[in-house]
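By convention, each integer encodes one residue's backbone shape. The lines below illustrate.
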Amino acid sequence: MGCVGPHPAVADVRRAVREALAGVEKGALVLAACSGGADSVALSAALAFVASRMGLRAGALTVDHGLQPGSAERAATVAEAARGMGLDPVEVLTVTVGTAGGPEAAARDARYAALTEAADRLTATAVLLGHTRDDQAETVLLGLARGSGPRSLSGMAASSGRYLRPFLGLSRATTVAACRALGLSPWDDPHNDDPRFTRVRVRRHVLPVLEKELGPGVAEALARTAGMAREDADALDGWADSAYRNCALSDIEGSVRLSVGELERLPNAVRRRVLRRAAIAAGAPPGALSAAHVLAVDRLVTRWHGQKAVDLPGGLSAVRRYDTLILAISPIP
């Protein structure tokens, strides 16, 4: 009898990880971020299998957010399971979750800060994240609901610095099937069923309704839309980077001055990206800067009739002085 290959789902997750790591140099350390859920457990198992065959070192990080009773014990169990897969080093990262931006955003910020610190300390080349095609679809729907433009509709990038997301082309069902085939027992986080969280409501109610009313394949279509939107957004961002250099009269911490004449020559999509970049450069927190803020600043360029300054997050204001647009900490001298 011939050799029987791995279960199709196992083959899929391994292939996805192998392709994501194709450009990583031999001997480099790659870490899997493992929460203990099916997606990240399948990711960790696939990394453990693939890394040795690619000449890579493989480890894992698990974050204890401290938000549930027994979270420390749960994190220790996840870490032990990762060691059992042959991953090394394995660390538990304990974080304190703040309140800025709501519970989901605060937990995410604390988690990424801890992952980044650990990756720097361990000199890891890459950190793998277990986001799937279903997560991507949820992200697109959340961006659509916010009405914050094509960048938010582009969802999560497959590669962002050292962070890699190998599973964006795979369904959540695939990772569950892979765990089952490998005899792994992932943990079901109660927060994944907590309707207080917007993403949970999208997952449990919005996507199922769309699938029922529009037919199967909605998640795939949304993820495909994210890919196309990302290509468009990347191209416009590149144009805006060049335009910003042409428009900026000065760019120092706490104050940016832009030429109104140069701004007026730009298409709306590019000009508004320049204005968003200018606001952030002046000190506006990116997460608090909304499309409404940017549109209000844009009107100082396109519909100028002597209006007063526009208030922006971070204690900034935007004001037009003749042919110069100034974004600076209030009050603007």
Observations:
- The mean pLDDT is 91.
- Residues 237 and 273 are 7 Å apart (CA to CA).
